[in-house]
Amino acid sequence: MQGVLIRSSEGHIPVERLRIGDLVATPDGLRRVHFVGESSYRAIDLRITGEMPIRIEAGAFGELGPVEPIQCSPNHAFLIDGCLVEAKALINGTTIRQLASWDEPTVTYYSIELEEHGLVWANGLLTETYFACRSGENDSREAWDNHAEYLALYGKGGHMRMLVQPRIPLARNLPNRIRQLVGLSQADMCSAEALALV
To answer: For 37-67, b where at least 16 C-beta lie within 10 A, e where not — what string?
Structure first.
């Protein structure tokens, strides 16, 4: 979300200031930003659907980071101990929690698209870039407020191959080592899963 710093060839840039062609750091070297999608939602709708942002405090994953707090969508994944773990699976009620309220009427999420699904550093923590997929005739990019701009530049675009790391969407699927890393108890896991089902 706004203010999260992305490591680039020009230093750390707030995600909302990234532009097409900017070079961002990945574990495989510098990669060009293909597009930055923006999706805005009414906060009241996100509260109703249980999709309010997740806040990850600085140091929530120990030496892995992040160096400053991160706020993101519940389905956004971070590379933790070799796994892509969605934020909603990590909720422990203290250092990682789902927000109950929002100061503004709308919530805006930013999606960094590279040529392929990849990893970048956000506030010092490795996080996934946008994963484009299709469901029938529907393109996942259609959720972007600036989708028309993408169409004008690239047409419909294609889908992507997902990163090879295993993806963990639910707390009950977490390996013990990750549960221990974030201090996730059985009670926390039950609470997080109940929220995810709302």
So the answer is: bbbebebeebbeeebbbbbbeeebbeeebbe
